[in-house]
Amino acid sequence: MSAEGALLFARYAYPPNELGYCGPADAAALLRRGATADIERRARQFEGAWCYLQFLAETAGLADPLDVRVVEAYWIGNELLDRADPAALVERMTDRFRGQLGGTWRDAGRRALAHHSFQVFEVYPWAPMLRSSGHPTALSVLDQCRVRTGVVVAADRDLATVRSRPLCWDGAGLADGAWREETVRCSAGGLTLLDGLSAGDRVALHWDWVCDVITDEQARRIEFLEERRRTDVGLTSCGPSYWPRKLNRT
Q1: Taking the CB of residue 166, how many other CB atoms lie within 10 A of it?
Q2: What pLDDT, on the 0 to 100 scale, is given for residue 237?
Q3: Is 162 in a helix, a strand, or coil?
Q4: pLDDT value for 241
Q5: CA-to-CA dists, residue 165 to 96, 109, 147, angstroms
Q6: CA 128 to CA 194: how far, in whole Å?
Q7: pTM of the predicted structure, to 2 decimals
Q8: Helices 36-43 and 3-18, axial angle in degrees (round to 10)
Q9: Is the distance from CB of 186 to CB of 197 less than 8 angstroms?
Q10: Are 208 and 15 in contact (CB under 8 A)?
Q11: What is the DSSP letter of 119?
Q12: What pLDDT, on the 0 to 100 scale, is given for residue 97?
């Protein structure tokens, strides 16, 4: 088991686990750096994410679903996504998620992708709900549940002010709203997996949590893959304009 991969998984999985949306009880255990074996055990109890991690590892010929390359592929995006057959993914999901109602993943066909944006916009029911009714709760959940990017304005050990762009709904499609400042958390109960934040850092955000400091390239992958997902499900009026290197076009 990759300790680096386990910690990367924990950085992104902690906020929904703390909120009670997925994973086992005692979310704070994910923030204990020295307990990577326990993090691995807990990761297996994230029914949705673990399915994708296993699938990506098998496709890449890797023995460890928590290999850091596999974990990065699911939360951020990398070349491993291009090796995975979409039809095989839907088949795997049909077995694992047969009780999941409301999404569009069963009909995804070639657009199926083992990436968190696919789980948010095609497996969960919120995108169809937004499209049919414009429900504000659906918009809020999509905005917070996705992994989004931001730039740190100021930070201490517990909280950070970041500039980010929220999702906006105009009645027909989703768009990135105007830049705004929001306050997000860096630690919980004195525990953190970050080594400190500085103004200007590019960060990945999940719910109200700073997951990690990321590179500009990683930020572009996150943004591109979400834009493509929104386009594929008919929630935006224009297609993605940038394809990050290391990801193929087909």
Answers
A1: 16
A2: 54
A3: strand
A4: 40
A5: 33, 30, 12
A6: 35
A7: 0.92
A8: 60
A9: yes
A10: yes
A11: I
A12: 81
Average pLDDT (227-234) is 93
**Residues 192-212, mean pLDDT to the nearest whole number:** 97
Asked whether 197 and 203 are in contact (CB, 8 A), the reply is yes
Q: Count CB-CB contacts under 10 A for residue 103.
A: 22
- Tell me the residue type at 63: A
Q: CB-based contacts of 224: which residues, under 8 Å, 6+ apart?
A: 77, 240, 242, 243, 244, 247
Helix (H) or strand (E) holding 61: none
Which residues lie closer than 8 Å to 85 by C-beta, 6 or more apart?
A: 59
Residues recorded for the chain: 250
What's residue 208's pLDDT? 97
Helix (H, G, I), strand (E, B) or coil at 159: strand
Residues 167 and 121: their CA atoms lie apart, in Å, by: 13
Give the DSSP letter of residue 193: S
Contact 8, 68 (CB under 8 A): yes
C-alpha distances (whole Å) from 185 to each of 159, 222, 249 are: 4, 20, 36
Encode burial over 118-141: b for 16+ CB neighbours within 10 A, e otherwise. bbbbbbbebbbbbbeeeeeebbeb
Structure tokens at 138: 């659906």
pLDDT of 204 above 90? yes
pLDDT at 119 over 80: yes
Mean pLDDT of 229-246: 64
